Amino acid sequence: MILSLFSFFVESKEFDYKFHWFAISVAKLSINFNESLFTKNKINHSDVKFQLSTLGPLKLYRNYTSQGSVKKNSNTSWDYYLSGQDRGQPEEKLITYFSDKAPEIKKFIDDSGVSSIAVDFELDKDAIDPFSVLFKTIEQLTLHQQCKNEYSVMDGKRRYKVKVELLEKKVNSSEVKIGHDDTVYNCKYTLSRVEEEYKKWPFNKKDRSMNVWFSSNLNYKPIRFQIKTPIGRIAGRYIID
Question: Do residues 149 and 179 make contact, with C-beta atoms less than 8 angstroms apart?
Answer without folding.
Answer: no
